[in-house]
Amino acid sequence: MRLNEGKIFIFIAAIIVGILVSFNIDLSKDNKKEYVSTKEYQEMYNKRNKLYREVSDVREDYYNNYKKLNFFKSGYVDEGNNIVDNIVDELENNKTLLGYNKVEGIGIEITIRDGFDEINPDIEDPLLRYMRTFHNTDLIQLINELKIFGAEAISINGQRVMTNSEVYCSSAFISINGVKLPSPFHIEAIGNTESLVNNLKSNDSYVKRLQGRGINIVIEEKDVIVISSYIGDLKVNFLTNIKNK
């Protein structure tokens, strides 16, 4: 009888172990499950959505360019759908993006003056005078911030800022596109007005640093900003296209 009880106990134990194994339950004490926190999950979720958007944008650009390429290759022409007109439109669009066309749109105007007292413009302390002077390096930082915040076109005292525009200190002037510009500096930028103003006025912006140094800065929202085209020539001496083989 005792022998049968032992067999029954072993049989029941074997069934229990089999059930646990079937449910993939690890009996070892060293095995620990890793859990993702709410913050980590949210970060991974946002990262995934960002990648999805980037992939979608790339696919859309690829589709549009592929469609355009096939259209040009076909040489198809009829009334209202002339390949020459499409090429001209494409050229004008590229000129606008590069800065060779006059443009307009909503945006902001920034007026910058050195931080000197108008009644007593002379500051004896050289360090204080340096801190309250708006330099070319300050202008470079400000241009970079405007681009980061979404400015689509920028001009400074009427000079269009191009991809190859220099911002150089020329004594009491700042040189842009080979033209010496005096203070005060009027910076015009076309873009999302709300985004530009909010970012420029944020506590960690470069504008706040300049104001902390005593530089006078006024930011105005404009319903219409008109920016002239670049009138110089873009000279290329060393660049060559790489043709696909």
UniProtKB/TrEMBL annotation:
Alphabetical list of Gene3D superfamilies matching this protein: Protein of unknown function DUF881
Domain of life, source organism: Bacteria
UniProt entry keywords in alphabetical sequence: Membrane, Transmembrane, Transmembrane helix
Keyword RNA-binding tagged: no
Record-annotated membrane-spanning stretches: 6-25
One Pfam family in the UniProt entry: DUF881
Keyword match Membrane: yes
Alphabetical list of InterPro entries matching this protein: DUF881
Family statement drawn from the similarity comment of this UniProt entry: Belongs to the UPF0749 family.
PANTHER family associated with the record: UPF0749 PROTEIN RV1825, UPF0749 PROTEIN YLXX
Protein name: Division initiation protein
Organism for this UniProt entry: Clostridium putrefaciens
